[in-house]
């Protein structure tokens, strides 16, 4: 069984075979008049639509934009014209609403299931889910979870759908086992956001029987049915150890790394909704604030007041901790329809981020800088330019910033005159010329995701070449090392704000290179903090637990590098490594 | 009737979200809009029909608009599809 959401769960097996929810009474019931059946159909549509609306609101309340998005697509499909026409036609010919729905949906499900396109195949799941919902309403059946009294349930099902999940008592659902669904499936995404352990694999045969107890180890990927006493004991021990560890990680959030360890942990944020969770992680500030979220949320360019409002909200939330606002990074795979950018053959090597800001969209760039400056009086703001490719671009950007500062000055509008300015190092040319760039900025932030892509010339979304994409490639590591050294020589701060900063295997290497600042996604903050603090102690004390000279010199190949880091981290963290 | 050929550059082709938006864009105009791809046609009014065309990325398809506001419809759709990068 493949672990999809890590954790442990115990409970009674619940295996509703929703294919059989077809209430036999309803199937055999003769159809009433077409007018009545149409009325039933319309009523059912309204009920399901409304329920979806409620689920969407619930999801939004717990900041689960992901489930909300999925369910919104369901609402959209429910309004589809073809379905309405086709079902009504069958009803006019004397078929019951229930059977008409079944027939029409089955045909569409068939169409989508037989498509070659993976994405389209997934839409058949949405349709099956909607079909079930409509069938349930039309036949007056409710899901039988209420028949089971048990406080803890472990769900076994072929495929977990949003409406299935929504009809369950989430508090009683302790674990999920499905036959279908990878890491990016709707089910996985929902369970991740609800913190419900989940595995994928062949469903065991006996789960359909009543009162089967289940032990679910979703760290290793194991399901034990009707466990014997010794199995319960071993499981209990594993579970307690794991949960104690997770607890200790949260306790770590109270510790600050800083003067003692020389490391500094910050977070990357993209949306104001992230704030409560982030502030709880209480790190040393925001290493990357993706300002483009504000532009992407809107149908048009946000007004000055909207921007100032948003930036001020974040700055005040963090008090005197630094917040690094990256100027708009749009283009490539992040598009803004209302900007009407001409389509490009090669968007990743194209007119994006600072390039368009220094060109056709200079006004937008100037306005954003002005807004950041205006809000800078409310906290500790820093400005960061993305995708700088050479010194000329940097000088131009700095020039524009100076002009906007002067304008505000002459208008008598206050701003932080000492506001720090830095750049993303993500284009290889910037890493290679880091020494000359360092003279003009207060800090560097290494964007390892893009840097890896450009350096290895491979698209990580392209399955044929994704194997080349790895920040453990010596070439990428050399550029990172070079950038850190350039920063040190110039006496400026260097931060890594890509995925690499929270990767347990990468952290020891980065520490060894002298990296001082790590900016990670909020959900990774506790793990990262734990790793940094423990490694710091270990690497200072013990001469034996060091990285090999070859590794530090980067004369090894990627796989050798990863292997050695794995062995090293195993020796320091043992079984905890699996959980980090 | 007004027809034009367009290319979907977006990874994943014309999938649910853009298909839904396309329905919205064409719905503003007084005319019938159809998409044609690989020998099949689909009325834009039905998301399912549009999705079932399974127009993949880099594919070329035809937009046929028929009615009083066909010119505006075609222009709006062209702008929308080209912005999907």
User: N- to C-terminal separation of chain A?
Assistant: 20 Å
CATH architecture descriptor of the largest domain in chain A: Alpha-Beta Barrel
Question: How many DSSP helices of chain B?
Answer: 3
Work out the radius of gyration of chain A: 28 Å
- Total discrete domains of chain B: 1
Distance between the termini of chain B: 28 Å
Strand order of the biggest β-sheet of chain A: 8-9-10-11-12-13-14-15
Average pLDDT value of chain B? 84
CATH topology of the largest domain in chain A: TIM Barrel
Q: Main sheet of chain B, how many strands, which sense, barrel? A: 4 strands, antiparallel
C-alpha geometry of chain B: globular
Number of strands of chain B: 4
Q: Judging by the overall fold, what is the CATH architecture of chain B? A: 2-Layer Sandwich
**Percent of residues of chain A in helical segments?**
40-55%
Uncertain regions spanning at least 5 consecutive residues of chain B: none
Assembly type of the chains comes to: heterodimer
Unreliable segments of 5+ consecutive residues of chain A: 18-23, 142-146
How would you describe this structure to a colleague?
The complex is a heterodimer of chains A (580) and B (85). Chain A is α/β, with parallel strands linked by helices and 580 residues long. Chain A has three domains: 17-142, Enzyme I, Chain A, domain 2 (Orthogonal Bundle), CATH 1.10.274; 145-227, Glucose Oxidase, domain 1 (3-Layer(bba) Sandwich), CATH 3.50.30.10; 257-542, Phosphoenolpyruvate-binding domains (TIM Barrel), CATH 3.20.20. Helices cover 48% and strands 13% of the residues of chain A. Chain A is built from 23 helices and 15 strands. Chain A has helices at 24-28, 34-61, 65-78, 81-92, 97-113, 118-139, 162-167, 186-194, 229-251, 275-280, 292-296, 304-317, 354-357, 362-375, 391-411, 428-432, 434-438, 448-456, 474-490, 506-512, 525-541, 549-553, 558-573, and strands spanning 2-5, 8-14, 153-157, 173-178, 198-200, 213-217, 222-225, 264-269, 286-290, 322-326, 380-385, 420-425, 443-446, 493-496, 517-520. Chain A has an eight-stranded parallel β-barrel with strand order 8-9-10-11-12-13-14-15, surrounded by four helices. Chain A is globular. Chain A starts with a strand and ends in a 7-residue tail after the last helix. With 85 residues, chain B is of the alpha+beta class. Chain B has one domain (2-82): HPr-like (Histidine-containing Protein, Chain: A). In chain B, 36% of the residues lie in helices and 27% in strands. Chain B has three helices and four strands, in the order βαββαβα. Chain B has a four-stranded antiparallel sheet. In chain B, β2 and β3 form a beta hairpin. Chain B is globular, with a radius of gyration of 11 Å. The mean pLDDT of chain B is 84.
């Amino acid at each position: 069984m493949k672990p999809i959401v890590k954790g442990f769960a115990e409970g009674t097996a619940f295996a509703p075979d929703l294919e059989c929810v077809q209430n036999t009474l309803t199937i055999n019931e003769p159809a009433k008049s077409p007018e009545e059946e149409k009325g039933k159909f319309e009523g059912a549509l309204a009920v399901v639509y409304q329920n979806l609306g409620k689920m969407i609101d619930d999801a939004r309340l717990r900041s689960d934009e992901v489930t909300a998005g999925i369910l919104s697509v369901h609402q959209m499909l429910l309004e589809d014209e073809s379905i309405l026409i086709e079902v009504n036609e069958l009803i006019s010919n004397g078929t019951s609403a229930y059977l008409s729905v079944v027939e029409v949906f089955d045909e569409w499900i068939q169409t989508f299931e037989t498509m070659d396109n993976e994405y389209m195949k997934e839409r058949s799941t949405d349709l099956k889910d909607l079909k079930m919902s409509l069938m349930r309403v039309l036949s007056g059946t409710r899901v039988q979870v209420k028949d089971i009294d048990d406080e803890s349930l472990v769900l076994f099902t072929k495929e977990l759908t949003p409406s299935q999940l929504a009809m369950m008592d989430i508090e009683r659902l302790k674990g999920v086992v499905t036959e279908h669904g990878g890491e990016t499936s709707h089910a996985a995404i929902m369970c991740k956001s609800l913190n419900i352990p989940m595995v994928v694999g062949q469903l065991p045969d006996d789960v359909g029987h009543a009162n089967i107890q289940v032990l679910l180890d979703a760290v290793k990927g194991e399901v034990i049915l009707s466990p014997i006493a010794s199995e319960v004991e071993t499981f209990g021990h594993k579970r307690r150890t794991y949960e104690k560890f997770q607890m200790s990680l949260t306790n770590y959030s109270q510790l600050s790394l800083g003067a003692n360890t020389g490391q500094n942990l910050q977070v990357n944020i993209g949306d104001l909704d992230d704030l409560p969770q982030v502030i709880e992680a209480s790190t040393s500030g925001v290493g990357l604030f993706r300002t483009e979220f504000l532009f992407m949320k809107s149908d048009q360019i946000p007004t000055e007041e909207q921007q100032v409002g948003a930036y001020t909200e974040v700055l005040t939330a963090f008090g005197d901790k630094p917040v690094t606002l990256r100027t708009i990074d749009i283009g490539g795979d992040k598009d803004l329809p209302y900007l009407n950018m001409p389509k490009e053959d090669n968007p990743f090597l194209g007119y994006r981020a600072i390039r368009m800001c220094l060109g056709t969209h200079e006004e937008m760039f100037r306005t954003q800088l002005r807004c950041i400056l205006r809000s800078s009086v409310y906290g500790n703001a820093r400005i960061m330019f993305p995708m700088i490719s050479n010194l000329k671009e940097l000088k131009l950007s700095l020039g524009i910033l100076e002009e906007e500062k002067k304008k505000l000055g002459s208008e008598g509008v206050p701003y932080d005159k000492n506001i720090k300015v830095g750049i993303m190092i993500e284009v290889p040319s910037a890493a290679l010329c880091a020494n000359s760039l360092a003279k003009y900025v207060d800090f560097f932030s290494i964007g390892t995701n893009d840097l890896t892509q450009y350096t290895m010339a491979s698209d990580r979304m392209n399955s044929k070449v994704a194997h080349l994409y790895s920040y453990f490639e010596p070439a990428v590591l050399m550029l990172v090392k070079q950038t850190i050294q350039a920063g040190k020589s110039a006496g400026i701060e260097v931060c890594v704000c890509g995925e690499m900063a929270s990767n347990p295997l990468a952290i020891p290497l980065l520490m060894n290179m002298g990296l001082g600042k790590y900016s990670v996604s909020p959900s990774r903050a506790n793990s990262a903090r734990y790793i940094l603090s423990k490694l710091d102690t270990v690497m200072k004390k013990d001469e034996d637990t060091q990285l090999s000279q070859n590794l530090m010199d980067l004369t090894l190949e990627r796989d050798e590098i990863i292997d050695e880091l794995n062995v090293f981290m195993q020796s320091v963290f043992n079984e905890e490594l699996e959980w980090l | 009737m007004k027809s034009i050929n367009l290319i979907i550059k977006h990874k994943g082709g014309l999938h649910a979200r853009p298909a839904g938006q396309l329905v919205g864009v064409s719905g503003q105009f007084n005319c019938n809009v159809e998409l044609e791809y690989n020998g099949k046609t689909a009325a834009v009014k039905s998301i399912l029909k549009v999705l079932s065309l399974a127009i993949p990325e880099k594919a070329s398809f035809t937009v046929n608009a028929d009615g009083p506001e066909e010119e505006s419809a075609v222009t709006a759709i062209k702008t929308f599809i080209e912005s999907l990068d």
